[in-house]
Fold each of these.
Amino acid sequence: MAEGMSFDQLKSYSRLEQIAANPVDLTQEGVMTPKRIDSMMAEGLGMKLFYSTERVDEEVMEALFELAAETHALKKMEEMQNGEIVNFIHGFPSENRPALHTAMRDFFDNRKMAPAAKEATELAYAEMEKLKDFLAKIETQNRFTDIVQVGIGGSQLGPQAIYLALQAYQKPGRRAHFISNVDPDDGAKIMHGLDLAKTLFVIVSKSGGTLETLTNQDFVKEHYKRAGLDPKHHLIAVTGKGSPMDDPNQYLASFYMWDYIGGRYSVTSMVGGVLLAFTLGMDRFLDFLRGAHAMDRLALNKDPVKNLPLLSALLGIWNRNFLHHPTVAIIPYSEALSRFPAHLQQLDMESNGKRIDKNGKPVEFETGPIIWGEPGTNGQHSFFQLLHQGTTIVPMEIIGFCESQWREDVIYKGTSSQEKLIANLLAQSLGLATGQANENPNKFFPGNRPNRILLANRLDPFTMGALLAYYEHKVAFQGFIWNVNSFDQEGVQLGKVLALKFTDQFALLRQRKTPDPKSFPLGHAFMRHLP
């Protein structure tokens, strides 16, 4: 991409716009053939990406690959993984730093690394060794059965999604819980179901000053004090080195995170590592990291047909910028991935929900879509009505597995539950794409609802790591192509600043003991309605 040139000024953009005026019609007889399905399938790391049910053909794919080349998407991915500064806005104050989440799982091979990546990998390895030693120590004590993650945003969504996804592999007698919301009912619900003497709490805050997290930490401490226990023997800090939480007098152990790892990209760091290694065991946690690392390497493959994250990113850009679909549903046909769409919602919308490019200029095109989703087959009996026959077309990303995790099943009417699950997955994909003609308008399905399937054999730790990194890189590739900064999140700051002003006023009112709306200069209209 030439310096200063916008995404919508590119030669490939103009070509794609022209093609999008008359995209392939998936409902036409003879379009969805076995040959098309076979040719529109990419494979890597035991995963298969089927995209014949997208509204693309060879001409579209060729133009999308030109778009990737014209925007230097692969070069930017290499730069990110090498530790070059990718989190910046030219000419304006910004975080101005690398995005090195890949370094957290890059110690499985001896390849030559750029200095910044090498240093980050060495730091990550040191924390991993600390974690191994800590877990070995508490294992000998045999004291702890439960662990609670106290954090918000990326400090909770990712770790919780991965824990639930891999719960089938957790060590016997280990459980994990999560407190994120500053709503006291959230914390109370968790605290009242625990044996505090057998519980560890992981307090996660990079800055050591996250208001919700510190409030919930005090909530936890109060429960320990009322139980006559010392919270220091139960609290673990995951924070930035030198932060207010980096204090051995307050915590049983401390693990470090770094400012070049955004919260939504932090699952493979100590943010997710402490809880996942405690519940799954170190070996399975390392398998999870190996899967993520393998996908990191695959994301550097120069062949876009073999580069699964890049291919998926380009299909998403086709749907968003050229077919003009504003939202994406991520539907895992796996109950284990019940919270994975929530993590991906933050990952995508916080990364690419941007209105300016990296030069600080407002963009004249659409960027990140609205992400949402729930597991299938439940969604089929809920919102799929709109997906099939509604007036808004919602592209879908479907995730499925050939085998179940627990390998416990039943044969009913000639097929197993897992076979029925996969049958539903395939049926929905085909039905959304091809529709159904019918003279009865109520039974008419228009089709041409784009979707693609990512199919793996079984959801195990390695596959989960690869799946996580697949989506991380899909999002990053889209940001590179749009030339937006996928690694900051200024959009969350305004609400924080205003909330602090409100809480300061609440503190004043508490001191006065009489809530007086007239003395509350900011938001007095809201205060007037408080009980």
Amino acid sequence: MTNLEPLLGGGFLSIPIEDYAMIGDCRTAALVSKQGSIDWLCIPYFDSPACFAALLGTSENGHWSIVPADPPRAVRRSYRDGSLILNTQFETETGSATLVDCMLPGSETPELLRVVEGTRGRVRMKLELVIRFDYGSVVPWVRSIGNGISAIAGPDMIRLRSDVPLHGQDMKTEAEFTVTEGQKVSFDLAWYPSHGREPEPVVVETAIQNTESWWREWSERCTYQGKWRDAVLRSLITLKGLTFQPTGGIVASPTTSLPELLGGVRNWDYRFCWVRDATLTLQALLNAGYLEEAREWREWLLRAVAGSPSELNIVYGLHGERRLTELELPWLQGYEKSAPVRTGNAAYQQYQLDIFGEVANTLFQASEAGLEPPEHDRHEIALAMLEFLETRWEHPDEGIWEMRGPRRQFVHSKMMAWVAVDRLIRSSEKGRFTIDLSRWKKLRAAIHEQVCRQGFDADMNSFVQYYGSKHLDASLLMMPLVGFLPPTDSRAVGTVKAIETHLMKDGFVGRYTQDPEVDGLPHGEGTFLPCSFWLADNYELHGRHAEAVRMFERLLEIRNDVGLLSEEYDPIAKRQLGNFPQAFTHVGLVNTAFNLTGRPKKPNAAPKSDGGKR
């Protein structure tokens, strides 16, 4: 059990990233610590300013803790089966109590429910609520009202309804109460625009039951029945929780600025939707039987990328916004003093050639899976991308890892340009639209020839990060996965061997050979977890099934106690790093499980449910 004093004393938080669990409503999400504290919540949407920002600062930047008044002897927690409802059980000298946390899917405005249930004896509990709007910088006006409080500042209003009396103390809201066996104490926190009407109260127990039914109905659609079903389903539930229901977009993570190296500067805002994630996410959803979610993700993608191919972003806002201005928040000291804290992401301005391949592959996969044609004209989109690639594929770019150094001729980028042309050719051959096949087959062959000639180093017996370099890059593991080369090709085999030799650290795969001249940033980060899943996929393609399973299960072992993974991992300190939980990592887990298990069953139909609506 982590010491509670840093939290309750109002000082610097030192809680491992993996000690958090996520709850959400498919519009935003909150992180709940093992100590029963909500230390991160952006409202009303994933990319809105946080009202609880202690995760990136101190408890004074906003949190909501409900914990035993006396230090617990043990803490156990779990999600209710097939749901995103979190149970945290506290064992004390005098009894035990369970804290239930969830958000209501289907609610027009964010609604967060917390219930303390006595399960044995008597347990004294302590509540501390610090509301700070605009990422912990704005102290609201708080007043007692009805059976709770209201807090207002500018456009934001929060209404908290409580079963126990609340009182203000030192710019905080506090309460102390005791629960006995069988007793329940409920709290209902709702956000709404300060100019709007206060939401009607809910019957908390009924709302939680409806939410559990909604999640379980959704989970029952999962078609995966292999040996890792629990891990796959938990990852799929996490992906659903990261879905922005109004548009169908899926955010990379609900957090910003969790560091890739403690004390480092690689701290980015991931509360947006990356085009690069589209293909692998769509594959995971289709494999698992979630056709409706796959269709909505494809439609979000087509709406977002509509326009001139020369203006194609690599990342978009939840509604498809293109401008994601990057700012620093100096009043937040950062997670474990890893500054700066950033909002927005300047990567939206980068040119990354590979996203054309991701878009084309996503549309191809969707058609292959039998999804009906999209609302948008695929022919016009396809032709526009091909004509753009014909003149721009040889230009340098920033690459898959969003390098902030000079543009280079990255091999992965060229490979994905080949994927774009290949998928559009194959779609035309299947009669989905008409293009000049001879013209585009020449382009496909030219890209392939150049990549194999300039991107392969014979002395290293491996493809390299960019033309003429001696650097390695784990993104090259995608070559056989996207069909650029057969997995048995000696060059593909040699690349896997080189990555095993030079990019693996204590059993996990790093992204690339780090060179500040290439990535424009100081050295230092954990191992990038999706790359380790890609290596397991390559093992399986090479017929090395036992090694693939060992790699996959090694990754499963580093999940936290409720099955969540972040972006990166430090195998020495055994800590998760980077934004958390990370969609890309959970997508990798789902896809690798299917690769190791076999083909999925026929998808089930989507249920008709209103979720947690009143």
Amino acid sequence: MPASHPSPAVDRPSSRHRALVLHALAFLAYLALTLFYMRPAAQVLGTHLAPDSGDPLFNLVVLKWGIHEMRTGMHGFWNLPFFFPARDVTTYSDHLLGPAAFATFFTAVVPNPLAAYNLLFLGSFVLCGFNTWYVLRRCGAGIAAAFLGGCMFAFLPFRWDQMSHVQVLLMHWIPVTLWSWDRLLAGPTWKRAAAFFVFYVLHVTGGTYLGYMIHFPMLVLLLYRAPALLPRERLRPALKILLPTGLAAGLVLAGVYVPYLRAAGHQARTPLEIQVFGASLVSYLTPTTSNLYGSLAETWRRPENCLFPGFLLTVLAVLAARRGWQRLRTPPARPLSPPRRITILLLAGLAAVAWVVGELRVWEIAGALTAPEIPGLGGHRLGVLTLAAGVLALCLRRLWGGNQPLRLKDLDPWERGLLVSGLLCFLLTFPLVYLPLMRVLPGLSGMRVPARFSAFVFFPLVYFAARELDRWKLGRLVVGLIAVFLLLEVMPTPVNWEPLESEARFPAVDHWLARQYDVTALLELPLEDNSADIVAMYHATLHWKPLVNGYSGYIPAHYADLQRNCCYPLPDPEQLQRLRNWGVTHVLLRKNVLDTRWKRRRAWRWAAEPGISIEYEYKHDRVYRIGR
């Protein structure tokens, strides 16, 4: 063979080497962009927290609890020591089990949990970009389209809006989990099973929301791949791999979610919460305040509803949808008679009217509009009517028309599954669809933010937008201009980094508590607001004594009642007896509760009451024992 035509044996390593180089360069590019957008993150990695000291500080507490438990045997992991005497408190929010495993290894080398948290926080942006790039490249996308697709997914406006919720930012395993699942179904091998299992475990142990939600797109992908697996000659060898993999994945899933199921009886979400934190069509036009153009949506912005994906991504997605419609649309195989056509149109119109009413009800809760009252269609019934009318219209179109409105079989099963799963998750972001389904599907009733299903809408959106961009075959100059526009569009406003006190600088009383072995449970006063409770929890990470105080996704009734009625500035006899009955042995009085003379006099008189004694006092921080 002439020297000018290298053999495949030479070509293959050369091609693999080039791919590795491109992967490394892409990773470094996403890292550089993340550090630039998050500046000065590299300088404050172990000392500051972004973007505030509310939910991020709470998540840091949960992460530190996971580290503590992994070092001591995991015997009490599900009993986060807050809201005493409540049990299974870890299930009140996201467990962060996988991130805690990473942080445990990290802090064994660098003893700084805050630095571990910030690495998870920043790493989510880098890995979101890189994993999207990797999947797009494996699907045949060009370098420019794959890289820009990674940027679109990594720096989504939705992600800037979720910076306080690291458990939602951990979206980076979505692309590779879905891709490896599809590859496993397309051709089951032990190598593919191992790859899928690793990504699946990393994803479902990252947090409850995304860990639960990914099973909807996985189910859709399974349905589209199943027909090719059903022939007997393929089914038996496939089951030898799929069944053990499914069993192993099921065991992981049970270990993570059985505690949540056990606690589900007293933690179900109300329809009002679903409507407050569910999406509307306007949500997908609402940019986050972190966007350069975020001020455009001040009048209609709602919490957890900044779902506008960006101008470039929207334009590309619309063009991809237009191309797909032209390619896949099919007229009825059998002509529809006027009565049948009118029936289908009436059903579709009924579904549309019900949808509009549902949208108005969401905005009625926000105080912006008034929704008409329809007798018999309160609660979830409006959603049932909408779904029933829409599904019936599609079924009649298929039955009477002789074919589907879209030729989805013309798509590859992977792309077909992505498209349908994205549409399904889009519908699940709306309370109108979510409310009736939460009554019949286990797990949905435990989540209050349906809008977070949009994480599984954005990945298909990015995928098809990147593939559309790849079809254009643009010159380097135009690609460069598009890249500049995208990187400017996704650039956030300056990220706030707040300094956070280290354990060495915690108040002296917390160091004293860490040395006491007879503190069964502790109430910290004053009971002010959630921010004070989060700080109390953070200080408790030094000693891990059970606290009556707490903050989480759920606030148990006994603590909500205590916040309303207790301790001005100290418990009255009835409240004190309730604390003793719970098993509380100590009360910590922080110095800011004694800011007036009458409070200080009351505190001294309280110490003279039977069974109460002062065990610690320093700089106005005081610890009382409340013996029986």
